## 1
Amino acid sequence: MLNTRDFTQLNPMLARPGEPVSAPRTRLGDTELLPETAYQLVHDESMLDGNARLNLATFVSTWMDSYADRLYAEAFDKNAIDKDEYPQTAAIEQYCWRMLADLWHAPDPAATIGTSTTGSSEACMLGGLALKRRWQHRRQAEGKSTAKPNLVMSSAVQVCWEKFCNYWDVEARHVPISLDHKVLDGTDLDQYIDENTIGVVAIMGVTYTGMYEPVAAIAAALDRIQLQTGLDIPIHVDGASGAMIAPFCQPDLIWDFRLPRVASINTSGHKYGLVYPGLGWVVWRNESLLPEDLIFRVSYLGGDMPTFALNFSRPGAQVLLQYYVFLRLGRPGYTRVQEGALDVARFLAMSIGQMDQFELWNDGSDIPVFAWMLRDNPPREWSLYDLSDRLRMQGWQVPAYPMPVDLGGLTVQRIVVRNGMSMDLADRFIAEFQAAVDYLERLDGPLPQGASRSGAFRH
């Protein structure tokens, strides 16, 4: 039997004379469509997606200015990996990571080494690989086993670090967070460190809540461990978000290459770097911290090309966009944009924190991200998942999710404020947030099995 879901139906107004009235969704069609027809079909399908500007779940940039859009259209055909064919894009890539090295207080930015990536996940993988390879080299030089490496991190770490440990056979050692220790802060770190530890991951902006992990405190704990055991453990800072907030909004916070123990730092150009997806960066304090045997030198399209990446072909346009934004904004512009996002986040956090139903986990004063819990006194029949459903009915995407297992099933809800979330929009959101809460409070009471407060049924 023909399943109509396997076909895209053409609106009679869209079908041109001689064209089919439907197009298959899951196989290539037997006939061609005119470009305007194909465009309209894809355009209409994508209309079902949420409004990106109302997406308070994603960290990824959803807006750039018209000049950036023009530059993007001029460069989307460039392959960043083809440095011989596009030497100026390669040069601009180097300009960018040297700017980041300077921004992050590298002792000598000219002596650093870095690369662009498709995002922070790839950048984290590369940072982790360098940690593992340096550990292997050291162990081999000492005539010791290179089996069973481990990496120490918070239990609230982003999933890319779980992937790294899984894919590259590294034991993930999770330091549990708790209500007393909401982030990895160096407490009891000695219980997780041994001679097989390749490094410690410190997060500048925990994905769950947006809080900074105190890199200086973690480094101090590792200093004490080194005095006691002789183990010299490096830090990789996962600055996917915070590495593009702290330099501008908390310039006195010590978290970067000012700490000698910090070997490498990554960030997302497509988050608070203010560039469209997908772009990431990773920078090492100096060239000696990126083992030479991880760098491939290949002959490609007529040139000798060094490369350290998980992906070979990747877009060059985002690299140009990052350089554009660096030039366009400079330090004053980035400070203005990021402080504006922090102002909105603090306003939203204050507004939600003043409601009797909620308790803030944090207040959005690190990166422009904060989370809150539902108070259990008095007990309520509705949950944060129900509130998320109600908000989605108005177009707002505000996720609710469980915290790591150490916190006993605690559920939080989180807002990410990005460039483009104005104070006017925030005012509108709070009004609709309050209306959603009032609706759920009025309905508080037993519901039929499987029903949610929004009226939707859970499966």
## 2
Amino acid sequence: MSRFTVQPGRFSASIDDDFVVFVIGMRVNKLWKLHKWIPVSRAMGPMIAELMSHPEKGLLGVRTMWAGRTITLIQYWRSFEQLEHFARDKDDPHLQAWRDFNAKVGTSGDVGVYHETYKVPAGAYECVYSNMPVMGLAAANGAEHVPVARRGEAARERLAAVNA
């Protein structure tokens, strides 16, 4: 089944363990400064490629979105510890990319970067995908794409079923 194949009906995601949602992105603040923002935008590809080729590093899945001047990646991680290790390990591509950003862009305001990290305890999530391809948490490694009834018809039920 293609990742673009629509799954008619209502579905949810099921994942048994704790996980981390990591939202990271960049914003081009000064379009004419290509020499500043193009290297920043190109830095993410090698990081994702490294993580996808080494699932033991903890990345479960990723989705990229582009809106205007902002590129956002929503990532699902097995643990915060693995995310932090990847960010700080000199042998992984993030640390050098971060150093390059600070040296070449710093606080100039030419390019913005941001991230948000959410630690999600097992069962403390809810999601619905109606007539959608398998995506988001349901597409992450270790998660299942399941009929919504398996977790509850309403958001409150899906959250209460695992937090009872």
